[in-house]
């Protein structure tokens, strides 16, 4: 009998790895149909106003330029649900960088030259891009999804006033940018009334549906392919303007058109993590038991689209208290529209909450790990629902053991190596279990091989490989007999890759289809007709059904840093993460995801940050020279481990999402370690040398 017991959980190598390292994997910009033209957009040069004139005479006269599109001659779109996609539809400029023209040419060089030759005149208006917590235009958004708005229990202010110990602190996280390795790109091709698009997207099905609506086409006349995607981190979760512009240009010219965004333009048009100002007030009894928790968040959004960075959502999950209030306020400004970035809400929110918990531990004189253990709970504080599984305490204890936390001198500035002060810190982490309905099909061939088809998107997480493992486990066959087809909207409908929900959603449908196929094969005693056998599954009504349980993954982060008191430089020496994330389906890809998230959290803590120029309304750090993602030299040896969880309330695999929880607590652990090293609290990210030398605050 074949060995299938190791199909799930085994460290299977990513199937597309050889194709990627040899260049055989083709990304959106690497599809070049015959007669392909190239497009280059023209961004607005003002922060707010209207286009009053466009002079494209010089651009059209350049050799190779095919056409110039503006709001005066571009195809009309149906009204989009997402206003950021309504490009070239009117003269309004809602923020600097908004696209006001598009040049299409025979070559990329001609398109760039043509774009530089377009002259745009504006009626400029006063603008405001500065986020402040007390801005009079900030408001509490309608709580349509259960995560935004305000949640109240008890009387938080009265409980705070009478508490034995109190902490009242404000934390700031700047705008952050996704910066995937592969910039946003699309190649669009009309053939009669049929549209084919190659797009760098986290969800080909979503792009198809949106394009069909915008261009008023039946969905079956649109095919979107996102076979290989070089990262997204949320910025490719829904269609972005580049794909709409490429489709417009192709329709006007009658030719395939390719559009690849320059990295310097990503900050203005594909979303960013909204900056947050977060006030946290914690009240506790002398033994550390929390009695009141208040978390108030203010973030910005654009004037054309509301997006709420739900940073207080983690506080509704983590620690119980009889009194609490969590509030989100959003401030419309003349800024590019923010959007999802890895662990939206959770990453900045946990930085504030877990930093405040560290400050409370210091106030009480209680070990930071012990304080978190004393406030553990088996019920979600806001909803009172029992957790389907919560092994945060086990993560904290196992992490403390592996990190040798007991050998730590709790006194700040207690360990020095010449001018370098050494400190260690801890933070907890959580991320919700998300799952959505999906369809999948499974095919058995007479030669004993199998094909699983689902419109999943592999954004570098190893989805192809893990889904093959899920299928092999359900079929009872070796993994190498299963092939997966993903990343095409013509495949069975599936949700996008986002919210750490992909494998749980797609895998559920794959497991069900393969289970049915296995039963059919058993009835036939393994005999497969020449045409093969097929089975399908649709998890609608079950994957999206309400649950009596609160379902979350949990984790604990530990960090050791060295802080140079002469230069202010912070170096992370050790990072350790221990997670409770259900059943781990592939130990190799899981470890990679955990470590990737922790590395991104390191960047959030120390190097990544963006600012909006109040005079010009533009992001100052617009490329990787100004926006510093961690380089190899910044990243120490990182350890990621996990607790085995058996949770029957999730999906047939018993898995939780792992793509985002790695980032969630890392910045707080590093910040807490910096405080332990220096005695100074850093309440604004990133923790740069100038802030260290200034003493924090």
Overall description:
The relative contact order is 0.13. The longest helix has 22 residues, at 502-523. The chain has 16 helices and 24 strands. α8 packs parallel to α15 and α13 packs across α15 (666-678). With 697 residues, the chain is an alpha+beta fold.
Report the mean per-residue pLDDT as an integer: 96
Question: How would you sum up the global shape?
Answer: globular
User: What topology, given as strand order, has the largest sheet?
Assistant: 3-5-1-12-9-10-11
- Biggest sheet features: 7 strands, mixed
How do you describe this structure in short?
Helix content is 25%, strand content 24%. The chain is an alpha+beta fold. Strand 23 (570-580), helix 13 (587-606) and strand 24 form a beta-alpha-beta unit.
Keywords for this entry:
24% strand; alpha+beta; 697 residues; 7-stranded mixed beta sheet; disordered N terminus
SSE layout:
Blueprint: H1 17-22, E1 37-43, E2 49-55, H2 57-61, E3 65-69, E4 92-93, E5 99-105, H3 108-117, E6 119-124, E7 150-153, H4 156-161, E8 165-173, E9 185-191, E10 194-199, H5 204-214, E11 222-225, H6 241-253, E12 257-260, H7 263-269, E13 276-284, E14 290-302, E15 323-333, H8 346-364, H9 368-374, H10 392-403, E16 416-417, E17 420-432, E18 439-444, E19 450-453, H11 463-475, E20 482-485, H12 502-523, E21 533-538, E22 552-564, E23 570-580, H13 587-606, E24 638-642, H14 661-664, H15 666-678, H16 689-694
Parallel strand pairs: 1-12, 10-11, 14-15, 19-20, 23-24
Antiparallel strand pairs: 1-5, 2-4, 2-6, 3-5, 7-15, 8-13, 9-10, 9-12, 13-14, 16-17, 17-22, 18-19, 18-21, 22-23
């Amino acid at each position: 009998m074949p060995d299938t017991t190791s199909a799930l959980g085994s460290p299977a190598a990513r199937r597309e790895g050889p194709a990627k390292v040899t260049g055989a994997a083709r990304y959106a910009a690497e599809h070049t149909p015959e007669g392909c033209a190239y497009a280059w957009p023209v961004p607005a040069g003002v922060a707010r106003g209207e286009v009053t004139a466009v002079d494209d005479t010089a651009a059209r006269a350049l050799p190779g330029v095919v056409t110039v599109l503006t709001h005066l001659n571009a195809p009309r779109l149906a009204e989009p649900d997402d206003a950021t996609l309504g490009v070239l539809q009117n003269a309004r400029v809602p923020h600097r960088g908004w696209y006001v023209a598009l040049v299409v040419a025979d070559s990329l060089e001609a398109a760039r030259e043509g774009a530089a030759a377009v002259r745009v005149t504006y009626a400029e208006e006063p603008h405001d891009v500065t986020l402040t917590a007390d801005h009079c235009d900030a408001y509490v958004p309608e709580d349509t999804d259960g995560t935004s708005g305000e949640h109240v229990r008890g009387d938080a202010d009265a409980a705070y006033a009478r508490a034995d110990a109190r902490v009242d602190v404000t934390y700031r996280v700047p705008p952050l940018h996704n910066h995937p390795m592969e910039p946003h790109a699309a190649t669009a091709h009309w053939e009669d009334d049929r549209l084919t698009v190659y797009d760098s997207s986290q969800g080909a099905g979503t792009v198809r549906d949106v394009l069909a609506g915008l261009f008023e086409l039946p969905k079956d006349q649109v095919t979107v392919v996102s076979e290989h995607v070089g990262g997204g981190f949320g910025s490719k979760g829904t269609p972005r303007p580049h794909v709409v512009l490429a489709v417009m240009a192709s329709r006007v010219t009658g030719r395939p058109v390719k559009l690849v965004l320059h990295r310097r333009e990503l900050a203005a048009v594909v979303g960013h993590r909204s900056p947050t100002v977060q006030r946290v007030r914690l009240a506790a009894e002398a033994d550390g038991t929390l009695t009141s928790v208040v978390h108030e968040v203010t973030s910005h959004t654009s004037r054309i689209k509301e997006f709420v960075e739900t940073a207080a959502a983690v506080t509704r999950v983590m620690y119980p208290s009889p009194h609490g209030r969590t509030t989100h306020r959003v401030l419309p400004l003349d800024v590019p529209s923010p959007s999802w970035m890895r662990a939206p809400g959770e990453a900045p929110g946990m930085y504030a909450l877990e930093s405040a918990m560290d400050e409370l531990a210091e106030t009480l004189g209680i070990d930071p790990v012990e304080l978190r253990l004393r406030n553990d709970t088996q019920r979600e504080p806001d909803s009172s629902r029992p957790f389907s599984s919560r092994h945060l305490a086990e993560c904290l204890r196992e992490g403390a053991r592996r990190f040798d936390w007991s050998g730590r001198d709790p006194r700040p500035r207690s360990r020095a190596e010449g001018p370098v002060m050494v400190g260690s810190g801890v933070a907890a982490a959580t991320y919700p279990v998300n799952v959505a309905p999906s369809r999948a099909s499974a095919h058995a061939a007479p030669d004993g091989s199998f094909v699983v088809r689902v419109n999943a998107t592999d954004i570098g997480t190893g989805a192809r490989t893990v889904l093959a493992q899920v299928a092999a486990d359900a079929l009872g066959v070796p993994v190498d007999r299963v092939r997966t087809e993903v990343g095409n909207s013509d495949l069975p409908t599936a949700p996008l890759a986002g919210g750490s929900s992909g494998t749980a959603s797609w895998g559920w449908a794959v497991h069900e289809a393969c289970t049915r196929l296995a039963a059919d094969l058993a009835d036939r005693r393994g005999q497969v007709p020449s045409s093969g056998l097929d089975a399908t599954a649709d998890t609608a009504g079950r994957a999206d059904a309400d649950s009596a349980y609160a379902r979350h993954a949990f984790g604990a982060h530990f960090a050791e840093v060295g802080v140079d008191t002469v230069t202010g430089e912070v170096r992370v020496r050790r990072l350790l993460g221990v997670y409770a994330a259900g059943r781990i389906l592939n130990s190799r890809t899981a470890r990679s995801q955990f470590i990737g998230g922790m590395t991104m959290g390191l960047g959030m803590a120390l190097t990544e940050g963006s600012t909006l120029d109040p005079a010009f309304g533009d992001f100052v750090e617009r490329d990787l020279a100004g926006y510093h993602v961690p380089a190899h030299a910044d990243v120490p040896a990182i350890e990621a481990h996990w607790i085995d969880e058996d949770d029957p309330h999730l999906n047939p695999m018993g898995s939780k999402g792992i793509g985002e929880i790695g980032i969630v607590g890392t910045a707080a652990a590093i910040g807490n370690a910096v405080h332990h090293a220096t005695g100074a609290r850093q309440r604004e990210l990133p923790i740069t040398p100038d802030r260290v030398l200034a003493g924090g605050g």
